[in-house]
Write a structure and sequence with these properties.
305 residues; nine-stranded antiparallel sheet; 6 helices; 35% strand
């Protein structure tokens, strides 16, 4: 099941990265790392909340984060939920449970990554870049720093917006699994993963799944689940409330009416297809898969934050 956001990942795919999968390289005595690994702390947090926030309270909370950013490891947080495929949404499942889902990365560390030296080589397949020797070790340390930073950032933002939140999932989907193995656009673990969020396609609700699918790699067995599009992109049929702030817009939906994704994007799967896929893919045909309907969506105004 590949990543379903080709427009965002075209450059990575062209460079040979298995977006929505796992990249491995080298042998135990290898002292380099590919220079195109997208280590940016990107990931998704999912938390249960007792109730939806009042719109005005949500606006005030997010405005407070924008005007007085919290610190993570002494760095002011940069709000990036709302740029590209990053978002902050509230959802409800079929049992009436509410969730906050936050997708963001760690642009705060971009200067550190850019300071690492890469060596370029021409090959019959085009130019490639590598982190070698000391730079490879520097990248390894940076990758773990970015992953930890992203997790902390998502938790701080979540608790500032919903203090009663019960975080059930908070993982990067750009992760250095080992010195020779990198997860790109997917969640990976040495153990089965529960409550994995998947944004299936434009015009579709989100999904939470439990996964026991094992991928055999030279570094050992890994449980992996791709994050789908990573996008919210819900295109609601009816919006009941809009609150505009100088830097963002909050929308609340009375009901959500979805387009059929396949009518717009032929390559995207439907929910039924994804559900059938997971039933075949996991060890148990009764693998848990829940649909999350979007209720509140936060969007950035252009050029803000």
């Amino acid at each position: 099941m590949p990543d379903f956001s080709p427009s965002l990942n075209e450059a990575r795919i062209r460079e040979g990265l298995p977006v929505g999968g796992i990249l491995g390289w080298g042998t135990p005595d290898t002292h380099f790392m590919p220079g195109i690994l997208p280590s940016n702390g990107c990931g998704i947090l999912v938390a249960k909340v007792r109730a939806l926030p009042r719109i005005q309270e949500l606006v005030e909370s997010v405005a407070g984060l924008a005007e007085k950013p919290p610190l993570v490891d002494s760095r002011p947080v940069i709000w990036d939920a709302g740029r590209k495929n990053h978002f902050l949404n509230f959802y409800r499942d079929d049992e009436g449970t509410y969730y906050i889902v936050l997708h963001c990365s760690a642009p705060e560390l971009r200067d550190t990554l850019q300071s690492l030296t890469k060596t370029s080589y021409d090959t019959p397949h085009g130019s490639i870049s590598l982190f070698e020797d000391g730079s490879a070790e520097g990248f390894r340390k940076f990758a773990k720093q970015a992953e930890e930073f992203g997790n902390k950032k998502r938790e701080i933002i979540c608790m500032a917006i919903a203090s009663d939140a019960n975080i059930i999932f908070n993982r990067p989907h750009m992760e250095l699994i080992s010195d020779r193995c990198f997860a790109i656009g997917c969640y990976a673990s040495s153990l089965p993963i529960a409550d994995v969020p998947i944004m299936v396609a434009p015009g579709q609700p989100a999904l939470l799944v439990d996964c026991s699918n094992v991928i055999e790699t030279p570094q050992g067995p890994i449980y992996a689940v791709p994050h789908g599009t990573g996008n919210a992109m819900t295109r609601p049929g009816r919006i009941s409330y809009v609150e505009r702030h100088s830097t963002f817009v909050v929308e609340r939906r009375e009901t959500a009416v979805y387009d059929v994704a396949s009518q717009v994007f032929d390559s995207f799967p439907t929910l039924d297809q994804v559900g059938s896929h997971f039933a075949k893919w996991t060890d148990s045909p009764d693998a848990r898969l829940r649909q999350l309907q979007p209720i509140i969506e936060l969007k950035l105004q252009k050029g803000k934050f």
